[in-house]
Write a structure and sequence with these properties.
By secondary structure, the chain is mainly α. The protein is built from seven helices and no strands. Helix 1 runs antiparallel to helix 2. The longest helix is centred in the middle third of the chain and has 29 residues. The chain is elongated and about 65 Å long.
């Protein structure tokens, strides 16, 4: 994700370089000697993919700069603590099991949940989310939305 104008300019310059490289690859009359056609095509596809990614990031940044953003998405922040508790329960994890998976003491998870994660750092919340997501993926069970 592009976070500021400097990153936007850098990304735009990178995209221009990838576009020129792609143009060069597409414009060559023949594949260089010793290069298998599949390898040549893979090179072209890799550049196309990178360019598409950069263009997507630039488009997202341009839309954000133009004011296109779903402010309702911020509502999730207010309900994050409840979502974390619900996810833990849905994964059939106790506070102790979650704490072990995160690598902290059970009492810390108890405090987080009692205070709606008010004292948890963003990086700690991310760790909890990652554990809950990996726990979901690892159990082989479908999840309900």
């Amino acid at each position: 994700m592009i976070k500021n104008e400097r990153q936007y300019r850098i990304t735009k310059a990178q995209a221009n370089r990838f576009a020129k490289t792609l143009e060069s690859l597409r414009g060559r009359r023949r594949i260089p000697e010793g290069v298998h056609p599949r390898i040549a095509r893979a090179q072209e596809e890799a550049v196309e993919s990178q360019l598409a990614d950069l263009e997507g990031e630039m488009r997202e940044y341009e839309e954000l700069k133009a004011g296109v953003f779903q402010m309702e998405a911020l509502d999730m922040v207010g309900s994050l603590a409840v979502l974390l508790v619900k996810a833990r329960i849905a994964q059939d994890l106790t506070q102790r099991e979650l704490a072990e998976l995160v690598g902290i003491k059970e009492q810390q998870i108890q405090r987080y949940e009692a205070t709606d994660y008010a004292s948890a750092s963003l990086s700690r919340i991310r760790e909890v989310v990652d554990v809950l997501l990996s726990s979901r993926a690892g159990d082989g069970q479908p999840t309900q939305n």
